[in-house]
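Exercise: predict the fold of this chain.
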Amino acid sequence: MMRWLQKLGPENRSLQQIHSHFLQMLVDGRHIFDASANALIGGTDLDVIESDLFTTDQRINATEQAIRREIVVHGSIHGAATFPALLVMMSLVKDAERIGDYCKNIFQLARVGAVLGTPEQTAEMVILKDRISKVIVRAHGIYKSQDEDDAKGFLDETADISSTCEGIVREDLRSVGENRAGRVLAHRYFKRVVSHTGNIVTSVVMPLDKLDYFDEPKR
């Protein structure tokens, strides 16, 4: 989409501003994920981190609202020529906002003292958490560069992470004799963060009507 924007006339300036604000949402999304996941897994002091976490979430929400206003103004001024880009952005900002929502869910698991399993299982979650954090950073770079080859490889990686999370959820749901609710919810939330991040990158390789459906099975 960025290449398409570069071909536009003066109206490109306000679209570039919208994209700049959106990229900031991804930066904040990575920050809030690290904060919430570290609170859950790493034993970070919850009272210390809570204010920063919810302030970041409020900033994500405020940025989403600002982008919506900018989209309405831009569309009313410049008309149909930029509607495709504006429709895509409306979809993407919702994905970015949902990352913040799931991170709040992760933090609430930390707040209630959710049990995450054995030390070995917790160590595996740390590795998974670090991998997801890097994925969010990578999504920022791919969206900015609009590199289609990187985007396709990225979507393969997010599909792999989602599959890993889903496998753990299914296994823990079948367990008998111990409480694995905390692990199930944590991995479900991890998966949703990854899925929304992947949805953002689909905009690099898929047309508007196919957004979010890159990895849908074909019947």
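Check your answer against the key: The chain has a mean pLDDT of 86.
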